[in-house]
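User: Could you write out the 3D structure of this protein bound to adenosine-5'-triphosphate? I've included everything you need below.
Assistant: Certainly. Input first, then the structure.
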Amino acid sequence: MSDRVPTFRIATIPGDGVGREVVDAGRAVLDEAARLTGGAFALDWQELPWGSAYYGETGRMMPEDGLEVLKGFDAVYFGAVGWPGVPDHVSLWGLRLAICQGFDQWANVRPVRFHPGVTSPLRKADDTELDWVVVRENSEGEYAGLGGRNLSARTGGEVAVQSSLFTEVGCERIMRFAFDLARTRTTKKVTSVTKSNAQQYGMVLWDDVFRRVAGDYPDVETESVLVDAMAARFVLSPENLSVVVASNLNADILSDLGSALAGSLGLAASANLNPERRYPSMFEPVHGSAPDIAGTGVANPIGAILSGALMLDHLGQPAAAEAVRTAVDAVTASGTLPRDLGGTATTADVTAATVAALGETL
Ligand code: ATP
Ligand code: MG
């Protein structure tokens, strides 16, 4: 290998539960992709033992200078966070959201599509197609962390306020991101999802900005749909969607629904992007730590592997990224399916099959 090979430094944070198993699977596949490109690029992994076990020892989910440590990397490859005994909001805010917010990863990209050989609860006929990208506003909205809890003298019990924050700048940048993404796709369409009939400040600002930004993209079809109607539409008529842009909470819920419709939460990949590239971006499966199956070797690694493909795209290696997706498709098409997809293949079986299939595509 010549020393001119671009080497990307990747921080891996397996985190909790099945995070460990699926991150190892993803690393094995990505290393094989790098090897098969014959020196086009290399990956230099460094693992960071942060998460709920670390919290048990130190009282923190990651070190105080954790963001400083991560700054030196080209990307972060993340497993999952959350474990019984650590309150969910502590583990989430202490690690995952600390990184997303600290590195201004304001665009969360979650592709949803059918996979060959995988039965979807939606697939009505063999020719039904489903291919969306949910673009989630990832820096403000309902997860802005604004509010508080107090004892109320008036009611005699506690009162809590949880506010959403919507800024014109925040709305505009996620919408431009969605429109730019739509332009790269076969179906050039952006569907904006809100609840602006009931939430008359933030969501109406969102709608106003959407209309204004749409004016700059006359070649992209647009529509606005209320989130309750959208949930029904995902199930009843999933055709005719391409890019779906929504606020933090709405897109979180819709993308979980989307991945279930594709066959399983275990398939779903995501990228938390800092599009300006001032800070590292983070790539992680949509699923959580799955304590019910952790350590049993049956976790579906595909969401993590496909998140690795999104990372390769981000690192400027689209051929390797596409090869990983093609290999995953070959594996599911061949019937090597993990338990959540109705099969009997273990995490290790799916990983080995994907590594082998890569040899056929690269
Ligand atoms: P979080 O709060 O982090 O989203 P959660 O408890 O809501 O976590 P998951 O940890 O994703 O959700 O688990 C939800 C269900 O999906 C569980 O039954 C789990 O076993 C299953 N599941 C999650 N990830 C996988 C996977 N990779 N393979 C197989 N099953 C999975
Ligand atoms: Mg969840």
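The CA atoms of residues 52 and 58 lie 10 Å apart.
User: Perfect, thank you.
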